[in-house]
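I have been asked to look over a protein record a colleague put together. Alongside the sequence sits a line of tokens, each denoting a local backbone shape. Please read both lines and tell me whether the tokens look consistent with the sequence. Take the sequence as given and treat only the tokens as open to question. I have pasted the whole thing underneath without changing anything:
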Amino acid sequence: MKFYESLRFKLVVWVVSIVIVGAVAQNGTSVYISRGLLTSEIQKECMSLAKTGSEQVNFFLSARLDELTTISKSDYITAMNQKDAVELLQDIISSDYENMFIIRPDGTAYLNNGAVVNVKDRNYFQTAIQGKKAVDIPLVSKVSGNIVIPIAVPIYQDDKVAGVLAASIKSAKMTSMLEDIKVGQSGYAYLISNDGTFLVHPDSSFVLKKNALQISDSLAAVSRKMIAMESGLDTYTLNGVEKYLAYAPVKLAGWSLGVAVPVSEVNGPVNGLLVKITLLTALVLVFSIIILWFISAKFFNPLTEMVGFIRKMANRDLSQNISSNLTSEFGLLLNSFGEMSQSLRETMNQISAGSDKLTEVSQELLINAEQTGTASEQVSATADEVARAAASQAEDAQRTTELTRQVGIGMQNVGTESEKIAQQSINFKNIVRRVTDTMIKQKDKMGETIVSAEQVFQVMTELNQYTEQIGEIITLINNIAEQTNLLALNAAIEAARAAKPDAGLPW
């Protein structure tokens, strides 16, 4: 039997297959659930970061506007005195700003560094001169050429707008603020304006140069929701990479903040978990196979040993001693086979002894048959001699008793009886020859089967019957011989008398 056809191998394969199926199902379920939970958590984290980021940006801009509002109420500012206002701004400007300045109603701006520019065309000025606080989109400073975020508040004199107090917030300040919003390894946050233009982005080539509505259809679909000041979580594809995008509005400025993270990165921990689970399962499976292989040996080695015993028994080898110290069903089965083998061995010994005895009896029957045949031959020879003597005497009696009718008739009867005896002797001789042939054949077949011995027994029975018949014939022959002798003697006497009629008898 080939190894892969053994029951032990099949059992290991079955168990391992069941373990593999169970492990795959369990691991697949675990990974599926883990992926769902992890994805849900990361999505929640992205939404939380987006809302937190938008609130942080909103709070920062609101704080800067409140700061400008407080400064705008200073006497130096409300007086719209250029020299005093510039000196004050030089004293209070913080590192968050690139510059601060006051703007006259005609758009002339006086910066804290002494520069004078006209900003009449800027949106923040036009909004603030109308008496509203303004946060404009990032733009290139006319003074430094850097990208700045302008904010502005109106300056009141007697409840009338007398000018505008503005400040240029450094774009780097806003960028560093968004850089702190991290999701995974490559997640990032960005800001877009109400027309989709990127205001803040980790890639500086996007800032004020690219529009989210024009990059990809999937991103444009999400960006429209952002422009509409909605908040939520969607997916989009950029350069073949699928990403999650959580977004929330910065209501104060009319912007929208988005937090993007690749889907593969979100699923990365789950994939890592899957790899670890797979490796752990493989190790457990290998150890399980090894342990199962050794455990199965405890069950199948006795069975293999039992098969070996049975094969030897099938080849008529009953000399083996079968026993086991196992207390399990295999041990009981082995011990039962041992008892059966011992019983068969004893039975075969008894059969062998009986066969020897049967052989001895058959030999004795053969010897007796041979002796009976010899005796039969001797009887046959004696009968022949008697028949010949009787025939001779009958002839002499015929020659000597022709003178008397009685003697002739008597001799005639004797001759008839002698012929019958001769015929019976011949028949007996044939019977003896047939019995002898039968005995010789039986001698050749005696050692082959018990059936032949039974046939010999039947032949012996028949021979006994024939022997009894022979005894009866011999008795008859003896009687006839005696009668013949008497008749012959009487014939001789009568013949003598006839030959010598005058002679006197001695009695």
Remarks:
- The CA atoms of residues 283 and 326 lie 33 Å apart.
- Residues 502-507 have pLDDT under 50 and may be disordered.
- The two ends are 111 Å apart (CA to CA).
- The first helix runs from residue 7 to 72.
